[in-house]
Amino acid sequence: MRYDIAISDNYTIIPERLAEFLNYLSIIRGKSNNTVDGYRIDLTMLFRFLKLYKGLCPRNIEFEDISINEIDDNFIRSIKLSDLYAFLSFLEKQRNNSAYARARKVASIKSFFKYLNTKTRILDENPASDLETPKINKRNPVYLTLEESKGLLRSMDENHKHYKRNVCIITLFLNCGLRLSELCSINISRIKGDTLTIVGKGNKERTVYLNKACLKVIFEYMEERSLIDIPVEHKDALFISERKSRINKRTVEILVKKYIEMAGLDKSKYTPHKLRHTAATLMYKHGNVDIRSLQKILGHENISTTQIYTHVDDERLREAVSSNPLNEE
C-alpha cells in the first residue's frame, strides 16, 4: 500500500506501518517535526538497507533510489536481530557513521519495534529488544572562547544590508543558548519586556531571559525590520529573510559559517549548535551559573545532558594545582 507523508515540507513514499508510527510520535507523543523527521530518515535507511541486504533489489542500484513503499507486515515480521546488527555494521563501514550517529539510529529502531510489539501488536516478539547501543566516548562540547566570541561580533560587516538582523541573530545565539530551530521560530508577540517565550524540543515551552545586549540588538533590528513590507502570514516572525518570509534554518547556517570565516575561525568546526555550546560554556565558566539553572536555560530534559559543560572545571582544577605553594617554576 502506498502512503505519502509530509514532514518538514518533504513528501516521501513510505510503508503504512512507518507512516502510522510517525503519526503516533507526532500526535500522541507530541514530538516536534524535527524529531519525527529524524525517525523517518533513520528508519527509511534501515528499510533500504534490508532490501539490499536480502537481495530484494539490484545490487548496483543507488542507495537513495531504493523504493520502500511496498514493505508490508510480512517483511517486518521477517526482520531478525542479526539483520539489525548487519545494518549497524553497514552504517559504520559503508556510511562512516560515528558511534553517536549509530546510537541515535539504534534509539529510532528500538522505539519503532517497541511500538509494533506493544501498541499495534503486529509483532509477537520484538527483534530489537536485545539490540545494544554502541558505546559513546564522552565528548567535550566545541565552543568559542570569550575573546573569540567578541571577535566574531566585531568581524561582522556593518555595511551589509542585513547587518542589524544578522548581528541580532549571532548575539542571541551567543547570549541565550538557543537551538537553531528555536531561533528561527521566534515570534515578536512572545517577547514581553526582557522575556521571550519559545517552543523548544518536544514542543515544550520555556522562558528565555534577554540581557541588555540582546534587548539592544533586537531594538535596533526592529527599526530596520519596520521598513520591510512583510506579508501578513509572516508579520509575527522576528527574523525575516530576503524573500520577506520567516527566515529558515539553512539561511541561518550559511550566515553563521560566513561570519565564522570572516572572524578567522574554522567554518567547518563551528555551527549554530556550537554557538549554543558557547553560550552555555560562557555562562557556566564566567557567569558562575549553577548546573541546575543552566539546565533550565538550555531546556534540557535531563541534567546529564547539561553536565557536558562541567568540562570547564578541568581548567579550574589545573589552576588549583598550579597555585599550590610548593609548586616551583
Task: Offer a concise description of the structure.
The protein is mainly alpha-helical. The chain has 2 domains: 3-118, DNA polymerase, domain 1 (Orthogonal Bundle); 146-315, hpI Integrase, Chain A.
Helix content: 40-55%
Any low-confidence stretches, pLDDT <50, length ≥5?
1-11
Rg from Cα: 23 Å
Task: Indicate the CATH architecture of the largest domain.
Answer: Orthogonal Bundle
Give me the side-by-side strand order of the main sheet.
3-4-5
Distance between the termini: 75 Å
Provide a descriptive summary of the structure in words.
By secondary structure, this protein is mainly α. It folds into two domains: 3-118, DNA polymerase, domain 1 (Orthogonal Bundle), CATH 1.10.150; 146-315, hpI Integrase, Chain A. It is built from 14 helices and five strands. The strands form two sheets. A three-stranded antiparallel beta sheet has the order 3-4-5, with no helix packed on it. A hairpin with a 5-residue loop joins β4 and β5 (205-209). It is globular, with a radius of gyration of 23 Å.
Layout of secondary structure:
Blueprint: E1 3-7, E2 10-14, H1 16-28, H2 33-53, H3 73-77, H4 81-93, H5 99-118, H6 146-154, H7 163-176, H8 180-184, E3 191-192, E4 195-199, E5 205-209, H9 212-225, H10 249-262, H11 272-286, H12 291-298, H13 303-306, H14 313-322
Antiparallel strand pairs: 1-2, 3-4, 4-5
What attributes does this structure have?
DNA polymerase, domain 1, 14 helices, 3-stranded antiparallel β-sheet, two-stranded antiparallel sheet, 329 residues, 5 strands, disordered N terminus, mainly alpha, hpI Integrase, Chain A
